[in-house]
């Protein structure tokens, strides 16, 4: 059983905002942290809207929704969250940035706090080098998008991660209504090592004119029983996030098949990042 009462979530984007909301609806207080006030405002609006929708659909009472929202504190400074007994980093997929954040996390949170990362692909062992002797409390806690709905948490031990840290991560994932599944510390773990080549290949098929994007997705939906086509899913994940994950896979596994398709790179360069920017492969109306 998890004893975690409060959790600091660093990064208020797609994933961080979902993690803090899921913690709050599980009765855990959440400090939602981001360097960008605009991202915090967006996260807060998303929290209020999602909870409101749950009340409308009678999945939650107004009292419980209000209580969940009241459990979330929004901060631009990590220091304000130092009392948290757990920290999970969900910032941009960049190793140097994550190492800097982990140094700050190590200096901020008490020695009993676990320092988890939601990275999709970066080595946990490498991230843990940022915290020196504290590496035993660093772990991969990989949630899926959208966090309030998706059941899986991939749990990834780095070389120095302790058994206690691992067990506490499994306990917290369960307390948040998730199913933890272990994977080893290789680039992309299991989920993205298998998923990203599929998404990349869908971009190549589009670029080569094999079919229109909507038809590629429709073929995978109807022919393979996918719940969502690979191009729609890429927009949902974020094309920049997909690109960054593929680059980690490409560099770490040394296989050119992981190199992002030129068309995907072009969309990212043009700022067409998917749902979050209003347009990616498909058009969602300008944000
Ligand atoms: N998008 C997905 O479907 C998905 C799924 C699982 C895991 N992930 C992983 O989760 C992490 C976050 O992805 P995302 O999709 O939420 O990205 P995002 O681009 O939506 O959000 C990233 C957030 O990090 C913030 N940030 C940047 N530097 C920061 C700092 N120094 N301190 C605090 N906040 C900072 C940004 O302002 C932004 O709000 C990445 O490691 C990604 O690989 C993403």
Span of the ends, CA to CA: 42 Å
Work out the count of structural domains: 2
Instruction: List low-confidence stretches.
Output: none
Order of strands, widest sheet: 3-2-1-4-5-6-7-8
Determine the CATH topology of the largest domain: Rossmann fold
Q: Roughly what percent helix?
A: 40-55%
Q: Classify the oligomer.
A: single chain
Share of residues in strands? 5-15%
**What's the CATH architecture name of the largest domain?**
3-Layer(aba) Sandwich
Give the mean pLDDT: 97
Shape estimate? globular
Please summarize the sheet with the most strands: 8 strands, mixed
Task: Output the helix-strand order.
Answer: EHEHHEEHEHEEHEHHHHH
List the total number of helices.
11
What is the CATH C level class of the largest domain, in words? Answer: Alpha Beta
How large is the radius of gyration? 19 Å
Q: Would you identify the CATH H-level superfamily of the largest domain?
A: NAD(P)-binding Rossmann-like Domain
Number of strands: 8
Q: Give the names of the bound compounds.
A: nicotinamide-adenine-dinucleotide
Q: What structural category do the secondary elements indicate?
A: alpha/beta
């Amino acid at each position: 059983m998890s004893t975690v009462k409060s959790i600091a979530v660093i990064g208020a984007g797609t994933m961080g905002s979902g993690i803090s909301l899921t913690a709050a609806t599980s009765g855990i207080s959440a400090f939602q942290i981001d360097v960008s006030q605009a991202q915090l405002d967006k996260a807060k609006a998303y929290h209020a809207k999602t909870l409101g929708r749950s009340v409308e659909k009678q999945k939650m009472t107004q009292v419980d929704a209000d209580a969940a929202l009241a459990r979330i504190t929004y901060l631009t400074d990590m220091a304000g969250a130092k009392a948290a007994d757990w920290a999970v980093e969900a910032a941009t997929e960049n190793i140097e940035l994550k190492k800097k954040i982990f140094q700050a996390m190590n200096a901020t949170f008490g020695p009993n706090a676990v320092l988890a990362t939601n990275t999709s692909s970066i080595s946990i062992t490498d991230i843990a080098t940022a915290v020196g002797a504290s590496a035993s409390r660093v772990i991969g806690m990989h949630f899926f998008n959208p966090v309030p709905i998706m059941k899986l948490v991939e749990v990834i031990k780095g070389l120095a991660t302790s058994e206690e840290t691992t067990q506490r991560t499994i306990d917290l994932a369960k307390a948040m209504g998730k199913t933890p599944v272990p994977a080893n510390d290789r680039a992309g773990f299991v989920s993205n090592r298998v998923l990203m080549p599929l998404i990349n290949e869908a971009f190549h098929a589009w670029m080569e004119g094999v079919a229109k994007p909507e038809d590629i997705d429709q073929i995978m939906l109807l022919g393979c029983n996918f719940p969502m086509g690979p191009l729609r899913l890429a927009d949902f994940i974020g094309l920049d996030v997909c690109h960054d994950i593929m680059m980690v896979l490409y560099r770490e596994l040394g296989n050119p098949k992981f190199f992002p398709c030129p068309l995907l790179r072009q969309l990212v360069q043009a700022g067409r990042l998917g749902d979050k920017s209003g347009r990616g492969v498909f058009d969602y109306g300008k944000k």
